[in-house]
Design brief:
The chain is of the alpha+beta class and 323 residues long. The protein folds into 2 domains: 18-131, Nucleoside Triphosphate Pyrophosphohydrolase; 164-311, Nucleoside Triphosphate Pyrophosphohydrolase (Alpha-Beta Complex), CATH 3.90.79. Helix content is 20%, strand content 28%. The protein is globular, with a radius of gyration of 22 Å.
Amino acid sequence: MTGGETPPLARSTLDRAAHRRTDPGWLAQAWTRARVLVVDTGNEGRALIRTGATPPELVLVEPEDVPAPAVAGAMFLGVEPDGVPVFLVDAPLPALPGTRAVHLREVGHLFADRDAGLFTTALALLNWHRRHVYSSVTGRRTEVDEAGWSRVDPEGDRIWPRTDPAMIVLVHDGVRGPEGRCLLGSNATWPRTPGERRYSCLAGYIEPGESAEAAVLREVREEVGVPVADIAYAGSQAWPFPGSLMLGFLATADPEHPVHVDPAEIAYARWFSRTEIGAALAGRTVPVGGGDRLILPPPSSIAFFLVHRWLDGAGEAGVRPGP
């Protein structure tokens, strides 16, 4: 099993056709021949997939099958390679035989490129709308405009979708082979499951006036007290929970340097060997103390992608031979 060359939610085949968002005539005609993705934000942002399909396949419906109250809020996502427009509506999921409701976290990594891009974009857009019902400038209520790609208040103040940039880094010791190690942390706010302890890459939001690389240095120092070097960009993906853009990096550090966690953010942090990480990914028990076993990031996350990049020895900065 590998993490692939592209983060799991960074894939798409859709032409966003942004120039069509302000063309009401074209949009009205496009709706009559569209495919429509239904996402239910009242049900944790779930959508329908076909039961038993491999890979999982999103269910898109015909415009006439969309509940009338949802039609007015339809948002234009783009045009598929076959020329068919795709729209999004936020509505209860229809009861269709041979389907089941899923969350993007569950199946994002299993989707083909087309469905990964559609679901990720749809959820990111809907989550942005839910958080911007009111203008931060005037305090007035805003309404959806430009086919879902902006909101405007009664005074004409317009806002557009934004994402919050964040960095995430897989810190490793630069050693190849099974004894090479990576530094992972367990967030203090994550819910506890008896017998399990989740560890992941270190991450944090990029602050105003700060570069992504500077954020890597700062966040690792703040969270675990370890200086890093050889910072190398590895890829990015949207993380629409609710609206981040995760910029992924690899960096090296000295495993002999003491680890001092910030208890407000990190409950535990420790170095793991490639042997331990490989065992955990294979479903074997890796003890982490207190009767807990190691749990790694979910497969749809860029953290999982970074762990695999390091595990497979791809894209590492400052790699040196093992003993």
